[in-house]
Amino acid sequence: MGCEWDSVWQGSENVYSRGVLWDSVILCMNFLQSPIWREIQTLVGRDIFDVQCGDQTYRGTRRTRHVWLLRLHRYQVLGVEDVSVLACLEDYANRYYVHWNDIFFQVGVVQEITSFDLVDKRSIDPMVIWEERNNAIVALDHWKMSRKENMPLATIVTPLVEEQELYDSYHKEHRRMIRKAREQWFTLTQATTQEQWKAFYDVWSSMGEHKGVGIMTRESFVRVMEYVTSEGVWSLFLLIDGDVVTAGSLVMWWEWVMYYIYGASNREYHNSGAHVLLQHEIMSWWYGQWYSSFDHRGVAPISDPDHHLAGVSRFKERFGWIQKEFVGSIDYINNGFLYRLMQRK
User: What is the pLDDT of residues 39-94, one digit of tens each?
Assistant: First the structure.
């Protein structure tokens, strides 16, 4: 059986191909300082602050961690364009966050280190990329690479092309899983009701518990979905077997790039290929809507094969064409002793 859309979609011809992929991919992860993302941070209850640097206002969040009887604070600004902004952010931190329990100020820098076609990955020297990333930071006094980054050091991007070309570009294992999933009667739909959002949340929550990963509350998720649905900037796609959610992916579009935000698959359908087919169908449809590329977000940097995202990286690489490496998350440390303590917890 084929994978069916539950409504009719109107597509249009796109012009991208692997031969011109470098011109068709827009800077990834610049959505982290978009108005939409800022509002979402408020909706999920984050403690928000703003930093004015020249004509640009950066929104950050304050996180609190309880260690024994201590309340330790860290501050985070993600999506900064390049390291030239750090002087302004450092000055802001020195003026406002100087208490003993203000441990560190973290900045996620989307300045690109390098990009490469994944077919050439074996020829890339990981140490060269590591040195380039380190050189971007080593000249900065008081800043160091984060021990636990909260913005990925790398991402994988798939330029959106015609469906058959897209399918042919995948790893053979992904192609096999897509064929397997197409033999089953799955229905692909956009989730637009609270019942559908909650059904996805149950799958997402179950997966998070299994992997030991915390997620937002159900109430926060519903608030976010109500907001992004009204704004028309996110879509939650579900692959359904009868009335059971087999897999779901939440995607955001910003400046002609599609971003994978959250996703989950039902463990009972782990070997069905549902999660692979879902991603393929999403990318195939958005090709017809004049979007340039699909950013899978969050993979291990090439210089760290033991990175905690190594497993998910292999899954995403089988879809991808380009890997982009960033400066990533760096920390300005206010209290060195408590910083080391906080990182161990």
Answer: 898 888 889 999 999 999 999 999 988 878 888 999 999 999 888 899 999 999 99
Indicate whether 192 and 307 sit together in one domain.
yes
What is the domain extent for residue 97?
A: 29-112+126-147+326-344
- C-alpha 123: how far from its chain's center? 26
Residue 291, token pair as written in the block: 């979007």
The answer to whether residue 332 is domain-embedded is yes
Q: Is the dihedral of CA 9, 279, 30, 214 positive or negative?
A: positive
Residues in CB range of 137: below 8 A, 6 or more apart: 83, 143, 144, 145, 327, 330
CA quadruple 232, 266, 308, 173: dihedral positive or negative? Answer: negative
Q: Are residues 137 and 162 in the same domain?
A: no
Can you say how many angstroms the Cα of residue 301 is from the centroid of all Cα atoms in its chain? 14
Angle at 271 between CA 268 and CA 272, to 5 degrees: 85
Q: Are residues 50 and 86 in the same domain?
A: yes
What are the pLDDT digits (tens) for 163-184? 999 999 999 999 999 999 999 9
Phi, psi angles (nearest 5°) of residue 159: -60, 140
pTM for the model stands at 0.84
Distances (CA, A) of 154 to 61, 271, 295: 22, 27, 11
Q: How many domains does the chain contain in total?
A: 2
Which residue in 108, 115, 69, 145 sits closest to 307, CA to CA?
A: 145
Per-residue pLDDT at 345 = 54
Whether 317 and 186 share a structural domain: yes
Do 271 and 310 lie in one domain? The reply is yes
